[in-house]
Every structure is written in C-alpha cells, then in structure tokens.
Design a protein that fits this description.
Structural class: alpha+beta
Number of helices: 2
Largest sheet: 6 strands, antiparallel
Strand content: 35-45%
Number of strands: 6
Order of helices and strands: HEEEEEEH
Shape: globular
Strand order of the largest sheet: 1-2-3-4-5-6
Radius of gyration: 24 Å
Helix content: 25-40%
C-alpha cells in the first residue's frame, strides 16, 4: 500500500513539473502568433465630417476583419461597425445626439441614443438587405481611405 501511494505521488509530481514547463514555453509562442496574425490600425477618413471621423480597423491574417468608425458632428455622433464576411459586410449603425452642445460632451452619459440600424452590403457598397429608413452611406469614402489587405 505504501508503495502505491509513493508511486502515485511520484507520478503526480513529475506530471506537474512537465505541465509547468510546457505552459511557460507555449505562452510566448501563442502571444507571438497572435501579434503576427492580428493587427489594429486607426485611420482618419477625409471628406465625411468637418468635426472629424476615424476608423479603427482589425486585420486578421493581414485581411480586414472588422472596423469601428466614429463620425463626429456638431449636434451628435455616429458609430458604424463593419463586420467583413467573404461575400458580404454586416453594418451596424448607432446614431447619438448630444444632450447639450459639442463642448459639453465629456462622457457617454452626455449622449442620447437615437437610432440603431443593421443591414448588409456587398463589397461595392450596394445594399443586400431591405434598405433602412435612414442610413449613413460612407462606404466609398471608407474604401478610399482604408486598405482591405495589409502587407
């Protein structure tokens, strides 16, 4: 009986040492592979708003994966999320109005959500689903300013 307990403790002890060594070796490899495959780049998009607009774009394996676009205006702001699929792009638009004037906006509490819309477009910017009553069509400007593939 003592031999069985000793043998079990030895196996558990050796197994724990192997697991500790292997996990510490693989963590840097996982981090390195994520860094090589995923990239986030912020772009300014010209010609949309005088108050400014920017796109934060996520690339996976050097191809565009998702983008969050913020468009700032005098009376409110809009957030567009593009999710890129092989044959279509999902668009989610959120429109906010400022509770006061532009200079009084300090946090999200100073914004009021006015509208949320979801629809699909193709890679030319043409609607694939029923058109929403209101939509922010900036895909051509986005496409002119943001590469869909990085090298």
């Amino acid at each position: 009986m003592k031999n069985i307990i000793f043998l079990l403790l030895t196996v558990i002890s050796c197994n724990a040492k192997d697991q500790n060594n292997s996990s510490s070796d693989t963590v840097p490899l996982l981090q390195e592979s994520l860094i090589k495959k995923d990239t986030i780049i912020t772009y300014n998009i010209d010609g949309i708003s005088s108050e400014g607009s920017e796109a934060v774009v996520i690339y996976k394996r050097k191809k565009i994966y998702e983008s969050k676009i913020n468009i700032y205006g005098e009376t409110g702001q809009a957030e567009l999320i593009y999710k890129f699929y092989p044959t279509k792009i999902e668009v989610i638009e959120k429109t906010h109005k400022y509770k006061g004037d532009l200079k009084s906006v300090n946090s999200k509490e100073d914004l009021k959500l006015v509208n949320i819309v979801k629809y699909y477009i193709d890679y030319k910017g043409e609607l694939l689903s029923n058109p929403p009553k209101k939509r922010i069509d900036i895909f051509k400007e986005f496409k002119n300013n943001v590469p869909f593939e990085i090298k």
